[in-house]
User: Fold this.
Amino acid sequence: MIEKFYHCPYCGERVSVLVDPSADAQELIEDCEVCCRPVSFSIQVTDEDEVEMQARREDD
Assistant:
């Protein structure tokens, strides 16, 4: 698992999420650790095991 940081689209706090690098493309929803609102993630893992992640409001 790889720890990635993002800014919550609701409260703006910097929060971390664990990403599984064995899957190339992932979509998941996790609650923000600070404000408990659902954050939707689009995750891509490149051939070099770099993780590209977008965090957005669940209703976007």
Notes: Residues 23 and 40 are 17 Å apart (CA to CA).
